[in-house]
Design brief:
By secondary structure, this protein is an alpha+beta fold. Helix content is 54%, strand content 11%.
Length: 226
């Protein structure tokens, strides 16, 4: 009889442990694709912007966080683009999501992770983490746990970020960016909108500097003071 009560007591402890684990377990998160975009999804949002509002040239990058070539651009070309063009006031950079769902099963989740970091002013820090560690999260499972770690390393309040992720509140914004790029002719990533034309594939920092300098040279000259 004593053995029976010991077994019963052990089962009760296990049951309490299971209930506690269920209560603390983070809900599964998925970001839907092909959602209907509402006016509220895009109100006041024109992409993630870096650089001076008075910069003479704007380039829009359409990218996918799970795309290897986008990671290559971010690792190799982006530091020079930032230092030579954005930091000098020549260029205003706009980053827009263009998730390729058929190839990249975690791309919208990554885009939403960055959007929720942007809610706290940390988009660019989160963007860097997602590309730096792309090889760790692009395959397999456990993406949310990894993204949470990246968010924390980026200086984000992770509890607030977690709530944002569970809400999937930016799914429409991500879809709107994809639809915008598609209307402009984007069909691969990365792609760049420069001077009204789409340039597909990784663009070197030297080529981007030439584009920017040529567009600046084409601007109308201010009339000479009399």
């Amino acid at each position: 009889m004593q053995t029976f009560y010991k077994v019963l007591g052990g089962a009760a402890v296990v049951g309490v442990g299971v209930i506690g684990w269920q209560m603390t377990k983070k809900p599964a998160v998925s970001i839907p694709a092909n959602v209907t975009v509402t006016a509220a999804d895009t109100a006041g949002f024109h992409g993630y912007i870096l650089g001076s509002d008075s910069a003479p040239v704007t380039i829009v990058e359409y990218a996918d966080f799970q795309c290897p070539q986008c990671e290559n651009f971010d690792a190799v070309q982006w530091p020079s683009v930032y230092e030579q063009l954005i930091a000098t006031g020549k260029l205003r950079w706009v980053y827009r999501d263009w998730p390729i769902d058929g190839l990249h099963s975690h791309t919208r989740l990554a885009s939403h992770a960055a959007a929720c970091a942007d809610e706290q002013g940390k988009f660019w820090q989160m963007k860097q983490k997602l590309y730096n560690y792309q090889g760790s999260w692009a395959f397999g499972s456990g993406q949310m746990s990894k993204f949470r770690d990246y968010a924390q390393a980026a200086g984000v309040n992770v509890d607030q970020w977690q709530g944002c992720m569970e809400s999937a509140k930016y799914a429409g914004r991500i879809q709107a960016s994809w639809e915008e790029g598609s209307r402009l002719g984007v069909n691969s990533t990365p792609s760049f909108l420069i001077g009204g034309r789409i340039y597909a594939g990784v663009q070197g920092s030297d080529a981007l500097r030439q584009y920017v300098d040529s567009l600046i040279a084409m601007r109308p000259k201010a009339p000479a003071a009399r």
